[in-house]
Amino acid sequence: MAIVRPTTEQLEALASRLHMRLTTEEASEYLALMQSSFDAYDLIDELPDEVPPSRYPRAAGQRPTGDMNRYNAWACKTEVKGAAAGPLAGRTVALKDNIALAGVPMMNGASTLEGFVPAYDATVATRLLDAGATIVGKATCEHFCLSGGSHTSDPEPVHNPHRQGYSSGGSSSGSAVLVAAGEVDLAVGGDQGGSVRIPAAWCGIYGLKPTHGLVPYTGIMPIESTLDHAGPMTANVRDNALMLEVMAGADGLDPRQVAPQVDAYTQALGRGADGLRIGILSEGFQLANLDSRVADKVRDAIARFEGLGASVEEVSVPAHSLAGALWSPIGCEGLTMQMMHGNGMGFNWKGQYDVALLDRHAGWREQADALSASLKVCMFVGQYGLERYNGRYYAKAQNIARRARAGYDHALSQYDLLVMPTVPFAAQPHPEPGCSITDYVSRALEMLGNTAAQDITGHPAMTLPCGLVDGLPVGLMLVGRHYAESTIYQAAAAFEASVDWKTL
């Protein structure tokens, strides 16, 4: 059908919002010139959209309650059976609830998106199903994924399976909990500042943020395209490597992917750590909020790598701290433009757009007060940078990000891996209901000191459990060269085979 044409009065008002003044006569003349463009809009409106097909039957499902969802980790339970055979046959998977699964609600942790139902499957969902997996539901995630804590999800906080009332980490909170609790075999998370690795560390599982662009992000609601990553979350290293084999590689729909280099990751698992060169990243142990008990656990684990034949020594990588600082202008201004002003999709990239998501998420403006405080503070920073400084700090930070990547690359030319604590402290209690904005936001963002950097530089990073502090898991993070996930898996598998981390 024909799109609605503006009146001359509406065009005058529109011009005013563009800082222009039109007379009624000028508006009428411009309106006549615009009609041929609007005719093209009519044509687009009449044509069917390009929507990837969904090949596996499923039901919409529903959110379980009570004892069926004791950690609040399920956003929705359903069942989508994949291929009859494949490397993941018989395995159950949960998808973070910002990942599209056709016909199944997707809320992305936010009440403002409640009721949205995607029309197609994300590429990672299709690949998992083609590999024989059964997708059994959507895992709760934090409010538009803007939190490293798990108290920001709508409608309720997600609880750590090791201790009720404690944070599971975020934003892939439910994904980590469901794997750690044994309710699913595998889960997919997303990572823009640590959102795979933080919850994996606090729940005692394995979580990988792959090289930027290795895993297609098609069908996953973005935050900021240069930071967006999706990765596997599993109870052991082999499952993690197997999942990455299934999910990795170009899909032809995601412009984040530039000739991604895939590998047979499971083949690296038996190589051992002997001969690996590991650099202990000094800056990773210099965070102001680093718990000394966590640092000790990680250093003890590093010593175990040395016992397995790896050479280990301290290295300073100033780019680590620089990359962490770059996250604020890139993350805040980028998400404000793409996820919020751009209605969850943004402009200027040749990817698969979810038109229905764009239409639905545009409604956040009518419910803006319901947005989480952690998202609001990022939007306030981003909007101020855009309005007061015209986006120059976003642009400059993206330029400087190449310097940060080069700093990491230089260190990784001397070492196979870098190692540091994933999160500076163990899981903490949820903030009290009705707490101050300061407490709410601080508890959402206080743990990003070591994880945000690799989202800026794009290097792969994996957390593996390496002990307990007060009965709560501690994570050690390995960082590798771009597309060197196999080296990370090689080291992680050697460590996993050498000890039961729960005894450390």
UniProtKB/TrEMBL annotation:
Pfam families assigned to the protein according to its UniProt record, in alphabetical order: Amidase (PF01425)
GO molecular function: amidase activity
Keyword Hydrolase: yes
Gene3D superfamilies: Amidase signature (AS) domain, Glu-tRNAGln amidotransferase C subunit, N-terminal domain
Protein name in the entry: Amidase
UniProt keyword annotations, A-Z: Hydrolase
PROSITE patterns: AMIDASES (PS00571)
Amidase domain span: 77-488
E.C. number(s) listed in UniProt: 3.5.1.4
Database matches in InterPro entries: Amidase, Amidase_CS, Amidase_dom, AS_sf
Region (Disordered): 150-171
